[in-house]
Structure formats: C-alpha cells, structure tokens
C-alpha cells in the first residue's frame, strides 16, 4: 500500500518532465527490484516517505545514466555516461560491491563538472551487477542513478588441441572444453554423421562433453567435430579435432649375423625393416652408445621402412653386437645384429738373431689373427720350408709352435745358415709374411791360398791378406816375430781396409825375401797365415812357333806360352823377324799376352826368320827356336765379289767387294756392260779405292749383262759376271709425286730447293763479283801448298784415253814412285800400262 503511494506521488511530482521523470520512476522501480542488493533499507515506510520528501526538496540536483540495463558478453567492452542537473561538485561511480570505482586498466573514468563516463574494458563475469553514479552538491546533498549490467558467456572453445594423439589399443578421450552461459549442448560428429547412443559400444560422450573412444585403432583416425549450441540465444559453434592414433614400432631384421674380414677395405650393410605410426626413428647403437654418421658409418633409409647401416673399411675392433632401435611416440623396439670380423694373420713379433758358429740359435715368431693362423718357416737361401713338428734328418732344425707362436731352433749353426728366414702366418682368411736375418759370428777365415809372391830387388810387391770374419777382425803383420807397424818401415808399407790388409814390400837385399806372417783376430778367436816372398826370374822361352796365313805382305805367327813365367806375370811377348841374310831384326810386341802376332809390311817372294821371347817385370827371357818362312810372289788379283741394287731414275748401283789383291793394290775395276740384245759393250773404269760403280743412263724395261775385272800392276783378274733388269718407266707426275709425300717431305724438298738457289747465287757472285762463300774457300785453299795430280781425259769414240792413278799397298804405303801409272785403253778394249819410271 505504501509502495504504490510512493510511486504515485513520484509520478505526480514529475508532472510532464519526460525523460527525467521516466528515469526517476525507473530508479524507484529498480531500487525496488534490487532491494536485496542495495544499501537502502526498506523495512519501514518512514524511510520511504523521508526519501520521497528529499527528492522533492532537492529537485534542483538530479542524476541520470544513459542506459538502464545492458547485456554484455565476456570479453566485450562498454561505456556508461552519468549526467547531473544542478550544481554538483562531485560525481562518483560505485561498483556492485558498493565500493567507489577508481580508474584502472580495465575501468576508466572521464569526469567533468556535470558529466562522468565509466568505461569497462574486456568484461568478465565478476563485473555483473548494479553500478551507481552519485552526485554531491556543495551542501553535501547527494543524488544518484544506477544501471544494471548483466554479463553472459558466449560459446567459447578453450585450449582445443588438434591433432590429439593416442596410443593404439588404449581408451582415448578426445577433449572438447567449451564454456557458455547458460551451459551449452554438445554434439559430436564423425565422418559427417552424428555420434549417438547406438555407437555406445565404441564411442561415448562424457559428462564433461569429451568424447571417449574405446580401444582406439588406426581405423578410428580422422577428423571429429565438436558442436556446441545455446538454445536461449540461438548461438551455435563447432571445432574440428584431428585424432591421430600412434602405432608402436614393429621391427624386424633380414639377417641377424654377418661375417667380414678386417683390413681388406671391406664393407658390410645391416638392414632393419620397421613399421609403425608415425614412422619410427631408427637409430643404431653399439656398446650402449648411439652411432653417428661418419666416413665409416653411413646411414640410409629407403621406402618400405628399410633402414640400413653400412660400415666401411672394417677393422678388427668393429666386430661385436650392434642394435637397431626404432622409436616413435607410441613406444620403441630394439633388435640385435652380430658382426663376426675375421682378421687376416699379422705377425707382431719377429726379430733378427745373432748366433756364434757352432752354437744354437732360437728364432721366435708371434702372429695374431681371427682365427689364429698356422706358422711356418722358409729359408731364403734354398727355399726349404719348416713347419710345426718338422725335424730335419741331420737333426739341426726343429720347429715348435702353439697359440700363435712358433720357435725355430737351429743346433750347431753353420755359416751356410746365415741369411734371411721368412716367417709366414697363414689362415683361411689370408696370410702374412715377415723376414728376419740370422747373423753368424765366427772366427776369422783366410780367403786365399796364394801365399807365395815373387819380386826382385827394387821392385815393390803387394802381399794381400784377405780375411772373412764376423765381427770384423783386426789384422797385424809380423816378420821374424817382430810386428810391422801400420806406418811401415823404410821398405814396407801397410794398407788396410775391411777384411783386407796389404803389405807392400820393396826388396832392397836378400834379407827382405823370406816369410811374413798375417794375424787376424776378433772376439771369437784368432787365426794366422804365412806368406813367402821369393826372388823372381825372367820367363823361360816360348816354344812351338808356327807360321800360318802367309801371303805376299802378311804372315801370322803363333806359339805356346813358356813353361815358367819366372814368378812374375808375363807382360807381353816380343816377336822379332828379319830377311834371311840380314842382320837387322824388326820388333813387334804382342797385344797383352796373346800368343798370336800378325806380321805386316813384308816383301813378296822373300824368305824371313822369326823368333819369340817372353817379357815379365823382371825382364826379357830367352828367345825361342828360330823359324823361317817365305812370302808368296806377286800375282793377279782374285775376281771381285759383286752385289747390286737399283739407283735413282735410270741408274743402277754395283757394289764391289775386294778379294785377294795378289800382293799389290787394286789399281782399278774394269766394268763392261751391255743389254742382252746388243753386241757392243760399254766400258766404265772405277778406281780401285772405290767400293761401288754407278751405271747410267740405262734403258727402261731392259736386261743388262755385266762383266767386272780387277787389275793390279801384275795384271787382270778373272772376270765376274752379273745380270740385272731395269723395270718399266714409272708414270710419275707432279701431282702424283707430291700427293704421296707427307708434310715433312714437302718441307724438305722446299728447303733443298732454297739451298740450291743459295748455291747458284753464291757461284754467280764468285764468277761475276769475286765474292761470296765459295770465293772465301778458294782463297783459303789457294793460300796453302797443295800437290797436283794428273787429270784424266775421257775417251771419245775411236780415240784412246790416258789415266794416271795412284797405287798403294794394302797397308797404305805407296808402292810406286811416281804416284801415277799411265794406262792406255784402245777401242778394241785392250789395255796397256806404262809405268813412269816406277820401280816394282
């Protein structure tokens, strides 16, 4: 009854004030409605009557807010304007808890004299309630207005993760955390179909709106839709969540054990086959450590889940167990692979050994490998082999081995055992060989039995003492129990080298001949050798002197060596010869100690005497028995030997080989030739010093007959007959000539033509201007004295020609004085010679 009265009075008091009166009525209504949330107490009607009276009495101070009721979603922002009519001195805002609002980050205040704006940023649920704007005038009187702020939560999906992963076989709970006010209704969809109660055996929507999938499998993978709606506001939203099912790795190996050989640059490849979701990460491990890629370890991954580890350059330490481990989000699995590394034999210990002759030597060889190798021995000097358990017939060699170690024992070591021994370690994987040297130490041994030396007074002689020993021996010389110092004496000198000591003795009297002692000593023992220095004599006479190959100018003397060389090597043989009846012996020395000597420069048809003596360092021995022989008389030469070959163009070259010249030099060769169809011979004279004759010009496609005769001063030889055939004329043109020539030949022809041109120019300069290279040569030659010789005149047909030719002996000495012989050749081919006052 009282409330109605108050409302009525308020309306009457407002009159027709419009918005203010409406706001005032609203305020009164709102105050009534939020009775329980304000600080005004409505328990007695007196308070209401008093408030009404205050409003009327303070009509000059009035407060209004732009909005009465506002709905705001969480996170949105809003502002409210409070306006005061009258003379307010202060405007304050109060929150739903009745506390005066102070400016902050989320609540801002902008206040002027009669106007104040409240801004609420990013509203939250706790911001809901009644906000009051209070105006205060100067007298302390207050008026206020209020606004109701209702906050609601829009549909919001909180921290939705996609994809959401689960392990194969477990119960999966797909989380869909959605909030709103009021509480939303959530529906799940899979493959565009709503998940309903009929899927309860597999799927179930929980009270917290999450979707539970029982024993999830790979087939349950996909996109699930969580849809939320608020029917009161007609609000609806959804989120798609990808569900991923992780399958634990399944690992298999195609081969669990491998064999390889170390140090052969071998490689081995392990293969693991994996499956799982997501694709497993494959790692390789050894001895608890993960292997990393390197030059030795190469990792490859192929299609079909094949992962490979390749180990390059396998060594002995690479053997053992390797593990292949596959890991993904759902778990891991591991498999082991065993690598058996075979190691080729390797000899690790073998040393050189030194033994004393006659003692025992033990040689040890140690080898390793997988499997352990068998060890054998080989002697390099004769290739003989020794294996474990072997024992030679002489019992000196014995081999014992065990666990990669072998010992070769040699009893009674001999010098022949010195040298290289090879140790060979062999297995089915391979072999290894090393060598050692067995060094034998022994007492000095003298190398020569030459203990007698010959010399004579004033002639130095070297007495050599050659010793073989190990270790090297020191050597001393003694004479009649006195040691000869290294510096020597007046007539002795000592020269030493390793294994050799030479005593040089220059005998001065008979006392220097006799015995000398050489002593050799090392740490194994001492040895002595005695040498005798005897007086030398001249050689005895050679014997069995014989003459052979006697000709007009030559004779060969052969003889036997003397029975005694006098203790000193023969230096050479002296051969003496002379004409019978002459007293002047001519001397010829043999070449070194040859027992054959050739006598030259003999006169034809002459009897000679010859004798031989041997000469050594001491002197010349006695002559042998004198032998006589007679040289052959001068005669005509033997027919020459002939060989031929075709020359350039229409020429033919005849090679002339001199035979026996009959004791006098060949003066000339008379070459007669004609075709086989002609009777007339053509004649060509060739000097006897020449070794060929050039026949030209000849006819093509013609057979020729040749007759060659050699002539010396005694006469003509028997003729030598020869035939040859000239071929058909070749068809040669400039084009064919040069087409067959290479670049080098063409260049050579060009250079030859250039050289010929230069010669022609030089000759022209010689005759026309008296200059040039030819002129210089002529002046040089003309400045010297030269002997002139006769010039031959060529014979014309029907006339005679005269030739003057020098004659020489075989030994190069001229046999005729003067230097020429005149030879007249007539048209009938007869030859007459006329010496120019020469003597035979």
Automatic annotation (TrEMBL):
GO CC terms: plasma membrane
One GO BP: cell adhesion
Domain Fibronectin type-III: 541-634, 636-731
Gene3D superfamilies, A to Z: Immunoglobulins
Signal sequence, renumbered to the chain: 1-18
The entry's keywords: Cell adhesion, Cell membrane, Disulfide bond, Glycoprotein, Immunoglobulin domain, Membrane, Phosphoprotein, Repeat, Signal, Transmembrane, Transmembrane helix
Superkingdom of source: Eukaryota
One Pfam family named in its UniProt record: fn3
Domain Ig-like, first and last residues per copy: 61-148, 153-237, 248-338, 345-439, 444-534
Subcellular location: Cell membrane
InterPro entries xref list: FN3_dom, FN3_sf, Ig-like_dom, Ig-like_dom_sf, Ig-like_fold, Ig_I-set, Ig_sub, Ig_sub2
Keyword Cell membrane: yes
Membrane topology: Single-pass type I membrane protein
Membrane-spanning ranges: 737-760
Function: May play important roles in selective fasciculation and zone-to-zone projection of the primary olfactory axons.
Protein name (record): Neural cell adhesion molecule 2
Organism from which the protein derives: Scophthalmus maximus
